[in-house]
Write a structure and sequence with these properties.
The complex is a heterodimer of chains A (226) and B (244). With 226 residues, chain A is mainly α. Chain A has nine helices and no strands. Classes of the chains: A mainly alpha (226), B mainly alpha (244).
């Protein structure tokens, strides 16, 4: 269990806000990829192992939906941070499953919050329609800064919600060892299904398939050596 | 600060005002502002019209938006007719979106993520994360710079400049690279997670994986992998509650 003290919570809040902004608005530097968000959150929470275990699993889920065009997708960034906060300090084989369940719900909530912000942006643009039609550069700047603020607020609120819930749940959830391990195995199986789905969909039948098979052979070799 | 550099930096926030009506439009207008500044002194009326056009509906991959931004900004200075500039913007939406998606979302990102996952499995940990961020952002920043420069030098001929550039070739090889990297990552990740659970645990997780793969493909978008995972966990809780 993470120690929810200010020197852990405040950096996690800041990290969650940056990660939330990175997904779409600025700078899209890929710090919102779950493996990155999870590793850094694990380092902040004092349990890097939990950060990597959760980050890698959420990365498998994230690979299943790439942000093509206007597709709707879950927001795994703040969700990964919340999941790491919940699972940190517990042996990973016991904490991964429940952390994943918690994080996936947050990711869906995060995806929904993106839609809210986008509708909010559209309303702001409608309010500034006259200024935009008149070619006022200041109106464009106002809209841009306002939208960035809304997205930062979204990331902050999501992370705050995740941390408050993680703090509450870590006090109240008591699972026996067998159930916790079963949860972890279901989470791992589901994550692998998501990854295989994305790989099969992306590979098609052309030259990509040959490279995929070559990659699988290398991966199997690594798996044997691990 | 150099106006082109300011526009490049603003391009990193081109999706800042993303919405379902204008999509990247307002973000493009924000990035275009430094490029159009000189037009204000020369031709204030044209400048006003150019600002209006720059913030209208636009959609493409954010990392290639510089091509459209540079091309339309140059066309404004060359006093190309307004409707022609609007047509150019519209014509660039689909190809820049499709090429960017193939290059970045279906190619570079999964390829680098796959390599990073394998590196993490092999113990590189934070070094792998740093290498991932450094590699992706170096390529992304260079692409942004190249896009803006190419757009500004090609103007209305940006289409020909894109077809003769490195982009189509890069798309050809980055897809197979992504397939290879992800192919290598999946078994390695599976071994990394399941190694400590023994055969029984591995078979159980594999069973869930096979069911998840089959059901999500069978039901399509109605049953996403996230929904499947949550459903499987709810079922597990119910089974445990009734003592199975």
């Amino acid at each position: 269990m993470t120690e929810f003290s200010p020197h852990v919570v405040l950096p996690l809040l800041l990290w969650g806000t940056l990660v939330g902004l990175d997904l779409v608005s600025v700078p899209q530097a890929m710090i919102s990829r779950p493996v990155v968000a999870g590793a850094v959150a694990g380092a902040i929470a004092g349990d890097i192992e939990a950060g990597f275990r959760i980050g890698v699993l959420f990365e498998l889920f994230a690979l299943d939906v790439m942000p093509f065009g206007a597709v709707r997708y879950p927001d795994y960034g703040p969700a990964t941070i919340g999941a790491v906060a919940l699972a940190a300090g517990t042996p990973w084989e016991l904490g991964l499953g429940i952390g994943t369940a918690f994080g996936l719900i947050l990711a869906v909530l995060g995806g929904w919050s993106l839609q809210v912000v986008r509708r909010w942006n559209a309303r702001s643009i409608q309010r500034q329609a006259a200024a935009l039609a008149a070619g006022e550069s200041s109106a464009i700047r106002r809209l841009q800064y306002g939208a960035l603020f809304r997205d930062a607020l979204r990331g902050f609120t999501l992370t705050l919600t995740a941390l408050v819930l993680a703090s509450t749940l870590s006090e109240s959830i008591r699972l026996d060892r067998q159930t916790a391990v079963a949860f972890t195995l279901v989470a791992i199986g589901s994550g692998l299904a998501a990854a295989v789905n994305s790989v099969v969909r992306a590979s098609g039948r052309g030259p990509r398939l040959k490279w995929l098979i070559a990659g699988l052979a290398v991966g199997l070799l690594i798996a044997v050596l691990l | 600060m150099n106006r082109r550099l300011r526009a490049l930096l603003r391009l990193f926030a081109v999706q800042g005002t993303w919405n379902y009506e204008r999509m990247l439009g307002v973000g493009m207008g924000y990035a275009a502002e430094p490029l159009l500044e000189d037009l204000k002194a020369v031709d204030p009326v044209r400048h006003g019209e150019a600002v209006v056009r720059s913030a209208e509906f636009f959609n493409c991959h954010p990392n290639l938006a510089g091509l459209a931004l540079g091309a339309t900004a140059r066309a404004e200075y060359e006093a190309v007719a307004g409707p022609q500039i609007v047509r150019l913007r519209t014509a660039l939406c689909s190809p820049l979106g499709s090429m960017g998606d193939q290059l970045f979302w279906a190619g570079l990102v999964p390829a680098l993520v796959g390599i990073t996952l394998v590196a993490v499995m092999l113990g590189a940990r934070m070094g792998a994360i740093a290498a991932f961020l450094l590699t992706y952002n170096s390529i992304r920043i260079w692409t942004g710079y190249w896009s803006l420069r190419t757009g500004m030098s090609a103007g209305m001929k940006v289409g020909a400049a894109i077809s003769s550039s490195w982009l189509p070739k890069a798309i050809e090889w980055v897809g197979p690279a992504a397939g290879f990297a992800l192919g290598a990552a999946v078994p390695a990740v599976a071994a990394w997670y399941l190694g400590i659970f023994g055969w029984a645990g591995a078979i159980g997780a594999a069973g869930v994986g096979v069911a998840g793969f089959a059901l999500t493909r069978w039901f399509g978008p109605g049953l996403t992998s996230v929904r499947f995972a949550l459903l499987a966990m709810i079922l597990l809780l119910l089974f445990r509650r009734i003592g199975l």
